[in-house]
Design goal:
repeat; two-stranded antiparallel sheet; 2 domains; alpha+beta; single chain; Serine Threonine Protein Phosphatase 5, Tetratricopeptide repeat; TPR_rpt; 7 helices
Length: about 270
């Protein structure tokens, strides 16, 4: 209890000391695979992750997973959470292949315990595409069309900002943005709600299944870990309006990419 209180107050060194004391006591009276050790191992592992001691974090989280496996845990949601916690540590370590592996194991566990029609499985997420790059200005135009304008749409640019357009198990890059109040270039275009300026820069991550993330904070963290402080997931309204916007950057035009929409149920990570 004292460890948890210190943890919640941000007193991580004190929390670790109390968690260690709890572990030492339990190890003297319990078997090495007793499920009562799981909580203590998990708590101290998460604290080590918070302070950047990732090797120690993994050591304790892997002990949690080992006990859960040996005991044949009937509560698969606990195993799911452990896979996810390990994946987040690897993500912070920039070991993305390992992070994606454990995110994938968490997804597989979800599939084992959830019914086929559960809202977190088999859902769609919204994707955008790059229209063009304006070389003299170093600016990309990205976005999509809702298909309701009554005019022919550019090939592959239709999207669904309300319920998603691409299965969340599809591996696609995430569009990340750094909002740095960049000045609007003197592009000869008509600026409006559907074609705005995002006042920043954009970049793409490597491809990842949208279903591996549990919420927007994890996707934002993914962008931040890859590209640095200030980077987050791009959103539908970053251009001041919606559907499309211009931004500094020169991203690949080969694939569609995941984008977040704040006010609709069109995100893979809406849980």
């Amino acid at each position: 209890m004292l460890g948890l209180i210190n943890d919640e107050q941000g007193l991580y060194s004190e929390a670790i000391d109390f968690y260690k004391q709890s572990i030492e006591i339990k190890q003297k009276i319990l078997s090495p695979t007793d499920s009562n050790l799981i909580v203590s191992y998990n708590n101290i592992g998460l604290v080590y992750g918070k302070i950047g001691e990732y090797a120690k974090a993994l050591s304790f989280l892997e002990k949690v997973l080992e006990i859960e496996r040996e005991n044949g845990s009937s509560d698969h949601s606990n195993v799911d959470a452990t896979y996810n916690n390990i994946a987040l540590v690897y993500n912070k370590m920039r070991e993305y292949a390992k992070a994606l592996y454990f995110f994938g194991r968490a997804l597989e566990t979800d599939r084992e315990i959830l019914p086929p029609n559960h809202p977190t499985l088999g859902r769609n997420g919204m994707t955008w595409k790059k229209y063009t790059h304006l070389e003299p200005f170093g600016v990309d135009l990205v976005g999509c069309s809702g298909g309701g304008g009554g005019v022919p749409e550019p090939p592959g640019m239709i999207c669904n900002a309300y319920s998603g357009d691409t299965n969340c198990d599809t591996s696609l890059p995430i569009l990340c943005v750094k909002y740095d109040d960049s000045p609007q270039p003197t592009i000869p275009v008509i600026w409006n709600y559907s074609f705005g300026w995002n006042r920043g820069h954009i970049r793409l991550t490597s491809s990842v299944r949208g279903s591996v993330f549990r919420d927007l904070s994890e996707v934002n963290e993914f962008c931040g870990v890859i590209f640095g402080n200030g980077w987050r997931t791009a959103t539908f309204h970053d251009g001041g309006g919606g559907w499309n916007y211009y931004s500094y950057g020169n991203i690949s035009s080969d694939k569609r990419f995941w984008v977040h929409v704040n006010d609709q149920n069109a995100n893979c990570w809406n849980r």
